[in-house]
Design goal:
GO terms for molecular function: ABC-type transporter activity. The chain has one domain. With about 290 residues, it is mainly α.
């Protein structure tokens, strides 16, 4: 094919031209390779391997349960507190790992990015995929705990759980694209993300009930708190696993509205993160 014919060929594209997240779907094979690499290297050289995916959330739950549940007395104020607590921990762990992975996805693959062109969005998307894969053992452990306490599965719980996971992935990917793009030139972005992760567990009703926020904060601050996508996601995890066990437990007024607002904010975060990422990705190789 001649050069002029190639330019008019509908299949011809300028090398290096990015379509952002939409372009990822055209490179499914490369995405699968990156997912396999991320999963294989996670526990490379470890004796326990995948067992750590169960040990870590279990140890985290035990620490919070002893301190928050027994010492501070939250165990007496919330029915089936172990299920309530572990539901929130699992949700926040997914967010933390997805955001941490996506923020460093570009810098961690600097050697590859500087040598050959690949759609840059492949790296943060695969990082989120790896976080989701490592989330599954924790979700399985949560399911076992809930079943042990008398939980029964239903379609509404399954849908609520899936939507909660989708909100977390959307929100974390949006933040990861934003901070990951900035992190290439300014490594302070990673430190800022560390601050977000440090507050993530406390900024959502994981270790306490939403009623405590309602009773001790002004109305406008409570509305902001409940509209937080992570608060929405944690409450959806509670609705899926804890609420069916805790009969008569109060639910926030306007929860559906807060859920819609939180989901919209998660999508807006993804949109902004994608815009920033596409604007800066052309300089990744030079800055790395």
């Amino acid at each position: 094919m001649s050069y002029s014919a190639a330019l008019t060929d509908p299949e011809f594209e300028t090398p290096g031209k990015s379509k952002g997240l939409f372009g990822v779907f055209r490179y499914r094979y490369l995405l699968s390779l990156l997912l396999k690499k991320g999963v294989a290297t996670r526990y490379h050289g470890s004796v326990l391997g995948w067992v750590w995916s169960y040990v870590r959330p279990g140890a985290q739950f035990l620490m919070y349960f002893l301190v928050i549940g027994l010492v501070l007395g939250q165990n007496r104020g919330i029915q089936f507190f172990p299920v309530y607590l572990f539901s929130g921990i699992v949700a926040v762990n997914l967010f933390n790992e997805a955001l941490r992975n996506t923020t460093t996805a570009i810098t961690d693959n600097a050697s590859l990015i500087k040598k050959v062109y690949l759609p840059r969005a492949l790296f943060p998307v695969s990082a989120v995929g790896v976080a989701l894969i490592h989330f599954l053992p924790q979700a399985l452990l949560l399911l076992v705990v809930a079943l042990f306490c008398g939980w029964t599965i239903g379609w509404l719980q399954v849908i609520t759980f899936i939507v909660g996971v989708a909100v977390i992935l959307c929100f974390s990917l949006g933040l990861g694209l934003f901070f990951g793009a900035i992190n290439v030139a300014y490594r302070d972005a990673r430190n800022f993300v560390d601050l977000i992760l440090m507050f993530a567990t406390w900024a959502s009703p994981v270790l306490y009930s939403w009623t405590m926020v309602y009773e001790h904060t002004p109305g406008w601050l409570y509305n902001i708190y409940m509209s937080n996508p992570m608060t929405v996601a944690v409450e959806m995890f509670h609705d899926a696993f804890w609420l069916p066990l805790a009969d008569g437990s109060p639910r926030p007024d306007g929860l559906l509205t807060f859920t819609l607002v939180g989901a919209v904010l998660a999508l807006l975060t993804l949109f902004i993160g994608q815009l920033v990422f596409r604007r800066l990705e052309g300089s990744f190789a030079q800055n790395l």
